[in-house]
Amino acid sequence: MENVGVYRFCGCAAKSKVKCDSRWEIPASETAPTSAYSSPARSLGDTGITPLSPSHIVNDADPNVSEQQTFLVVVAVDFGTTSSGYAYSFTKEPECIHVMRRWEGGDPGVSNQKTPTTILLTPERKFHSFGYAARDFYHDLDPNEAKQWLYLEKFKMKLHTTGDLTMDTDLTAANGKKVKALEIFAYALQYFKEQALKELSDQAGSEFENSDVRWVITVPAIWKQPAKQFMRQAAYQAGLASPDNSEQLIIALEPEAASIYCRKLRLHQMIELSSKAAVNGYSSSDTVGAGFAQAKEHIRRNRQSRTFLVENVIGEIWSELEEGDKYVVVDSGGGTVDLTVHQIRLPEGHLKELYKATGGPYGSLGVDYEFEKLLCKIFGEDFIEQFKIKRPAAWVDLMIAFESRKRAAAPDRTNPLNITLPFSFIDYYKKFRGHSVEHALRKSNVDFVKWSSQGMLRMSPDAMNALFKPTIDSIIEHLRDLFQKPEVSTVKFLFLVGGFAEAPLLQQAVQAAFGDKCRIIIPQDVGLTILKGAVLFGLDPAVIKVRRSPLTYGVGVLNRYVEGKHPPEKLLVKDGTRWCTDVFDKFISADQSVALGELVKRSYTPAKPSQLVIVINIYSSEHDDVSFITDPGVKKCGTLRLDLTGTSGTAVPPRREIQTLMQFGDTEIKATAIDIATSKSVKVGIDFLNY
C-alpha cells in the first residue's frame, strides 16, 4: 500500500507537514487539542525547517514548450449547446482555415454548416448517431419504439448548471432514462474525431494518424475548472489525447477564440450596426435586418468554398486602432452569453484581458423555454410534461418547427408566424383533455396566439418578440453592468458573435443600448467565428498574453499567532509555540492580472522521507479579501497531488523539499514540481472533479 500523507491545510489530522510562505502544516498527534469546529491541523511537529517564501516568477513562455511535439494539423471542435462543428488548418498553411464538410440533412431556412448537438443511443445504450442523422432517425422511429431509444440534445448546459459536477454526473434522455454525462460527451467527441480524421485522410490520400493532430475544444469562458476538467476527461476517453500527452489537447475559451479571429477581419468580412461609419457598403440608413440579410446572401453564394483565408498579420479593422485600445466581445450562443474585454498590443496584435470573463445562462435556449412556458399556459403544464414523456419524438419535431420560425423573428416584421403542431400533439391532447387544441386556445385567454385550420399555431410578431424579451433583457442588463466598470469605460468596438448574434432582435437591442458608446461589429458568418478563432488559437496558443483570474485560489496553512490580529478561536498552542490555524495562503486573487507563463512557487516537505504521496486541498472564493479558509464564501474546490514515487534516488535525504510551480495564466490551471535534492521531476495532478 502506498504511503500517503494527506495535507488538508487546516482540515484533517494528517501525519504530514507542509511549509509554505513561512507557515507549515503540522502532523497530528494523539494528544492534540480538539475544538468544536473542524480544523485540520491541530498539533505541531518539528519546527526546525526553514520555510521558503513564496514567489512569482515571470517567464515569457510556457516552460514545457521545448518538449512539445510538432503537429501537422490543428483541428478545432466547437462543441456548442445547440449546434457543433469542426474546422482545421495545416500548420504549414496557417492562413487557410478549412471548415468541415457539409452535413447531411438540415432544416428549411437554417444554415447547416454546423450540425445539431444531438446524440442517439440504441436501447442497449450503444452509440448510434450524432447531429442531423440522430435527429432524423429518431424522428422516423415508431412512437412506441422511440421510447426505448436514448435521445439527448442541448446537454452541454448540464456542465454549467451542475454545482457539484463529478465524473458520475447523469444526463436525462428524452425518454426520461438516465445516462452518464461523461459517456455522452466522449461519444460526441469521438464522433468528431472520426469525422475529422476521415476527411483529413481523404484529403491527404493516405491514412491520417491521430498523433499528427493538435486538438482544440471550445468551452464558455464562464465555465469553472471542474467543467473544463470534465471536458478534458471526456476527450481522453474519446481518444483525442491522453494524460501522458496532455499537450495534444488545448481548451479554448469561446469569446477568446472569437476575439482572436476578429483581429484578422477585413472590411468586407463584417457588418457594422452603429451609425458612426459605414462598413461593407452599408450606410447608417440601412436597417439592421436588411444589412444582415445581404451579408447572409453573400455567404450563401460563397458557401461551396469551405476554405477561409485569414490575414497573416492583423486585419484592416485594426488600422483604426492604437496601442492600448480596448474592445468587448459578446459571445451569444445557444446556452450561455460570455463577455470578455481585451486590449490590443501592437504591432504583433497580442491580446491582454482587462476584466475577468463574465456572463450567464442567457443563450437562445431562453427563448425556447419561454415558448414552452407559453404552451404550458395554453395547454396546461401537466399535459406538456406528459406529452414530452409519452411522445418524445413529436416534442422534438415541435421544437424544430419553432426553431425555424424563431429565426424569422425581426423587429420590423408585420405578418404572423405559423408553427406547425405535430399530428400526435393534436391527437394526444384530445385523448388527454377530451376536447380539441382549438378549444384550448379559445379558452386560454392568450389573444396573440390563434389556431390556423391548417393545424398550426399562428403567432403575432409581438407574441414572438415577447418570447425573446426576457433573454435579451438579461444580456443588455449584464452588458450595462460591464460598461460601468472603469476598465470598460473607453471601449472602441463591441463584437457581437455566436449563433444567437444572428437574431435581428438581439442586434437591434444591443445597437439601441450601446451604439452611442462604441462601434458595434458583427463578423460575417457569425456562427463560425468561434470555430475559426479556435483554429487560430491552436496554431498560436500564446496569442493571449495576459488573463484575469476568475477566482481567488489558495490553501489553508498555519501561521504564527499574533495577539489582536488573529481570532482567539484560531489559537493552537503546541510545545510552547502559539499558532493560528486555518490561515488562507493566497496563490492568486480574483480579477488579478496574470501573464502567460507566470508561475506561483511554493515548497512542500513530506513528513517522513519515505512518504510517496502528498495531497493538498485547494480552496477558492469569489472575493479577494480572504483571511481564513473558514471565511464565508470560501470553499474547497480541488486537490493538488504530488506523487513522489521514483524521485528520491538511492540515498533518501533526511529532509526533502518539493518545489511546486503553478500557472494561472492559461485557459486551465496547470502545475509542475521537482524534487530539489535530486532535480527529478515530480508527477503532479490538480483535480477539481474527484476531491
Walkthrough of the structure:
This protein is an alpha+beta fold and 691 residues long. The protein has four domains: 73-253, Nucleotidyltransferase, domain 5 (2-Layer Sandwich); 260-274 and 303-353 and 476-547, ATPase, nucleotide binding domain (Nucleotidyltransferase, domain 5, 2-Layer Sandwich); 365-466, no CATH class; 551-685, Substrate Binding Domain Of DNAk, Chain A, domain 1 (Sandwich). The protein has 15 helices and 36 strands. Strands 1, 4, 27, 28, 29, 31, 32, 33, 34, 35 and 36 form an eleven-stranded mixed β-sheet that branches. Strands 16-25-24-18-19-20-26-30 form an eight-stranded mixed β-sheet, sandwiched between helices. Strand 18 (326-332) and strand 19 form a beta hairpin. The longest helix is centred in the N-terminal third of the chain and has 24 residues, at 181-204. Belongs to the heat shock protein 70 family.
How do the helices and strands line up, and which of them pair or pack?
Layout: E1 4-7, E2 18-20, E3 23-25, E4 55-57, E5 73-79, E6 83-90, E7 96-99, E8 115-116, E9 118-121, E10 127-130, H1 132-140, H2 143-146, E11 150-153, H3 157-161, E12 170-172, E13 178-180, H4 181-204, E14 213-219, H5 225-238, E15 249-253, H6 254-262, E16 270-272, H7 288-301, E17 307-309, E18 326-332, E19 337-345, E20 350-360, H8 365-379, H9 381-390, H10 392-406, E21 417-420, H11 423-433, H12 437-443, E22 449-452, E23 456-459, H13 461-483, E24 491-497, H14 504-514, E25 519-523, H15 529-539, E26 544-548, E27 552-560, E28 571-574, E29 577-588, E30 593-595, E31 599-604, E32 613-621, E33 635-643, E34 658-663, E35 670-675, E36 680-687
Parallel strand pairs: 1-32, 5-14, 14-15, 18-24, 20-26, 24-25
Antiparallel strand pairs: 2-3, 4-31, 5-6, 6-7, 6-8, 7-17, 9-10, 9-11, 12-13, 16-25, 18-19, 19-20, 21-23, 22-23, 26-30, 27-29, 27-32, 28-29, 31-34, 32-33, 33-36, 34-35, 35-36
Helix pairs in contact: 1-10, 4-5, 6-15, 8-9, 8-13, 9-10, 13-14
